[in-house]
What does this fold into?
Amino acid sequence: MTVATPTDSTKRPAGRGPRTGAEWVTFTIACALLVALAVVIVTRSGDDAPAEPVASQTGSIIRSAAGYEVPVEVRNVGGRTAAEVQVRVELTIGGEVSESDQVVDFLAGDDSEDLTFVFEDDPADGELVVEVVGYATP
Amino acid sequence: MTAASAVDQRGPWATEGVELVAAASGGLLFGIPMLMTMEVWWTGSHTTPLQAAGVLVLTSIPVFLLNRTSGFRSTRDVRVRDAVMDTVEAVALGLVLVTVVLYLLRELTPDTPISVAIGKAVYEAFPFCLGISVANHFLRGERTEGDDDEATEASPDGGLSATAKDIGATVIGSVFVALNIAPTDEVPMIAAALDPLGILALMAASLAVSYGIVFGAGFSRQDQRRQHTGLLQSPASETVSSYLVALACAALMLLMYQRLGGPWTLTLDKVVVLGLPASIGGAAGRLAM
It folds into this structure.
């Protein structure tokens, strides 16, 4: 078995010629990309408003094999990310309250998540309350 | 054929293209396990733009140092100025490619907020860019002239032995890269998030990357590989058959870790998802052996 030389000096030519046109093009594109990224980072670094997750019902209730499905969207209208966002939907029919909870792991600023809550009884018969009951700082 | 004359014959644009493919190959080899790690996606989700900038700066330092010594260019003895420019290109290329892969895996969508997208891309780009910087060192190979002579003599032999060697190398490479990922939850997570079009896109990407690593990146013994005759030895058929071998390996790994249950459609999706790192590893394995 032959011993491999420690570097790849046998394969690559030593030293580089002047940069070719193609290399300048890729370098310029790369620079432009990084500059654009830096600009985006700088302009968004002031986005430090505290997290504010808000839940609301979106669209009408669907009757399915599982039951009555309530579509809900929870959106973080603040700047910072909220973790463990707990969304609760309460259905009150004639004094009886049934609840359904879901937890969203991460909700970044401006991000939203679509959830579906399922109830046995028809929400049209009673009162639906959709709210965020808690969240954590990641 | 020395690398220098190969550069001259290809022309500057083709050379640049080949070097970028080489960079991408190195990046993928190092970066694909992190690209399929949910904790990195989560960290990216709650990264502030300032933290992202810090990670980018941190990434640039080892990338610059590595570019000074190995890098992805087909020449050595890189000067400081060239290393800086290569670092800029490596970081930009890494960011672009991880964004593409994150889109393929549906971790980034058109609805993703910009700060989340930047956070995820920047954290995933760190190992990717390291891979770009060592692409030459690991993939261009440290072979003596003696090894190449043996290979030249072996290839006219052609036929089944070359095919068997390729299959073996694909298997070893696939297992090497994909075994870490096989038992993890990310595989069914990604599989669940992909619609049929996404699965097809993943397959196309796996084939393209596999071809690029072995035949497109200017790494060792490529011209000899193109001239291989024998069963399944033309570049296109070798790429396709190696992809099938990688998929088979992925299925076996999932089976071994008891991760294959459920409807057959989900199983197929999981195999294709694990097939991405498996085919990257398989391609690297064929390069290395």
Summary: The helical segments of chain A are 21-44. Chain A touches chain B through 48 residues (CB under 8 Å). Chain A has a mean pLDDT of 83. The first helix of chain A runs from residue 21 to 44.
